[in-house]
Design brief:
single chain, alpha+beta, Beta-Lactamase, 2 domains, seven-stranded antiparallel β-sheet, 7 helices
Length: about 270
């Protein structure tokens, strides 16, 4: 049974912009009962100004594989970072509680981090980038794996697994031991499987615990739409890097693998 992590709110919205699924922690937005929201217009929950902004942002979605973000959004008195994806006639919306203000210049950060990479050896470039990603995100261990899950580079080598399951969409586990939040409404929609904040199942929790990992971040990396690698970030304590910071990390990492490919890396 699907569940969401408590730091994020999940909404599945139909083509008529009515709520089909909502996570049980929707009370973070006010005095709302999740069962009463199912079938109601999303605007009744987040307000007309927020729905206008959200619909404009969702219009940027180019395909069922793409996603859009909006950072520092206010739904009522709550500041949130919002992510949305599209599938069929429905939209999956995740709104996480913001952990930091907007970055002064996210795109400038990506350029600066890319400019600091030096040399023409693809593996050396990857190793430099892993150190930068650790500083950016605050995660203790950052790993770059190829499309098969084999380790390419890391900022901190240690004993343990060198193979990681490839990922096809962004995933974040902020606290392995956090209490999962159930979903109310339709739970079988395939879009829900694309939620970044899905609660880990018992098997995932067991694997993380055996590796001494309390929080993790996974990002798929693509070149011209083809997945070529993935980022895996681990932390020994609960941790949640801000959504905009994660977006910077993702864009920088995709620029990295494109540069590695230009330098002869065979992905």
């Amino acid at each position: 049974m699907a569940a969401i992590q408590p730091c994020a709110l999940l909404l599945l919205v139909g083509p008529d912009w009515r709520i089909e699924t909502v996570s049980a922690n929707v009370a973070m937005l006010g005095d709302h009962k999740p069962g009463e929201l199912v079938g109601q217009p999303l605007a009744d929950l987040i307000g007309s100004k927020a729905i206008h902004s959200l619909r404009n942002r969702i219009s940027w979605l180019a395909s069922d594989e793409s996603e859009v973000h909006d950072f520092g959004v206010h739904w009522g008195d709550v500041m949130l970072d919002v992510r949305a994806v599209h599938g069929g006639n429905c939209y999956l919306i995740e709104a996480e509680l913001a952990v930091e203000p907007r970055l002064p210049d996210g795109i400038g950060m990506v350029r600066s981090m890319s400019d600091r990479l030096s040399g023409d050896n693809p593996i050396a470039l990857a190793s430099q980038a892993m150190n930068q990603l650790a500083a950016l995100t605050g995660f203790e261990r950052i790993l770059l794996c190829d499309r098969h899950g084999q380790l390419i580079a890391t900022n901190k080598r240690r004993e343990g697994a060198s193979f990681f399951e490839p990922v096809t969409s962004a995933r974040l586990i902020a606290d392995r031991d956090a209490e999962p939040v159930p979903l109310v409404g339709a739970e079988e929609d395939s879009l829900i499987s694309r939620a970044a904040y899905l609660a880990p199942d018992l098997e995932q929790c067991g694997t993380m615990q055996s590796r001494g990992v309390a929080a993790s971040l996974e990002l798929p990396l693509r070149i011209d739409g083809e997945q070529v690698a993935s980022i895996h970030a681990h932390h020994s304590m609960p941790r949640r890097a801000g959504a905009e910071r994660r977006s910077v990390a993702h864009l920088f990492s995709e620029r990295l693998v494109a540069r590695m490919a230009r330098q002869g890396w065979d992905f």
